[in-house]
Amino acid sequence: MSEVTRPTLSDALTERMLELIRTGGHRPGDRLPSTRELSQRFAVTTPTLREALRRLEATGAIELRHGSGIYVGADIERVVLPNPNMRELHAAQLLELLGARIVIEPPLAALAARHADAEELAALRQLLDQAGRHLRGEDAILHDANMSFHRATARLAGNSVLHEVVDSLLTVHGPEQREILQIFDDRSRDYEEHLAILEAIETRDAAQAEARMRSHLMDVKTVIEQRLIKM
């Protein structure tokens, strides 16, 4: 039987920092005590404290702002976290990424059609308006708008855990998503398919929203498969 790993001082300190945030009622964006104050409070050296802070920063629990201080991170309450150490995907994994999205995103589009309010729909429309202005050679901006559209659609479904799954996939595999845009290489077609999804969501047609999202992602996956074979 393998020996149970004992928590290190850094492990314990990480937990105490999280306890400080939670019991203190701190919210994302709130400023925390300085490094010196925390070292004194927990009776640890500065290097030990910094190791714990780096761990917390890697998960988004805190944000270290140079010259400003330590703040509670936006991801403090996340259930699903992206892995910051992921390596670049190879071709098979690229297709698996799209396969995962095909399973997850269409039902979320259907839920978005049922739950999104007028203000949320207007924000979704603005994202595609932005994408439509950058279809000719401005791929960095277009990519960000496209991914924001998919993230927002998942968020409007009303399931925070599934939204975090989609967000994590798109965040960790950002380079692969940009590669998909390059290989697919039909920005107008991609844009029109996004518009069709949005129109189904706006008209509260859950079945069409789901079908169009699935068709869109399947279309992308098919093109990627064909072009990877030729490469």
TrEMBL record:
InterPro entries: GntR_C, TF_FadR/GntR_C, Tscrpt_reg_HTH_GntR, WH-like_DNA-bd_sf, WH_DNA-bd_sf. GO terms for molecular function: DNA binding; DNA-binding transcription factor activity. SUPFAM superfamilies: GntR ligand-binding domain-like, Winged helix' DNA-binding domain. Keywords: DNA-binding, Transcription, Transcription regulation. Pfam families: FCD, GntR. This is FCD domain-containing protein. It comes from Nonomuraea phyllanthi.
